[in-house]
Amino acid sequence: MSKVKAKSALVGVVATLADLAMLALLVEVIGIAPRLASAPALLLGVLVQFLGNKVFAFEDRSRAWARQGLLFGLVEIGALALNALLFDRLVALTGIPYLPARLLVGGTVYFGFSLPLWSRIFRPQPVVSSC
Description:
This protein is mainly alpha-helical. The chain is 79% helix and 0% strand. It has helices at 3-30, 34-57, 65-94, 98-118. The protein has one domain.
């Protein structure tokens, strides 16, 4: 696995933990149904993904925050739709508990959809020496 993929996977773990913590908080503490709590929890994960991948995984120091944010947002709209649909169907059709279902669906969408597209958005910036 390349350095970028490994770092992005670490960002994915952190984002997933944020997602799961928010999902559990919304379900267990606030009392929202898992199928309704799914989208807000995913949105927190998206924010962690964008910041972590741009700055940490891809080491992209460009000032193209708006352009990259828009492109990342478009990818994540697709990922959000895939996650929500697959999570809903998996929970409804199999009865798998919501947290393992989130991990299974999230990992599938992450590696199969999001990561390949993010590598087209973020580019490491070459270090320019001032000699």
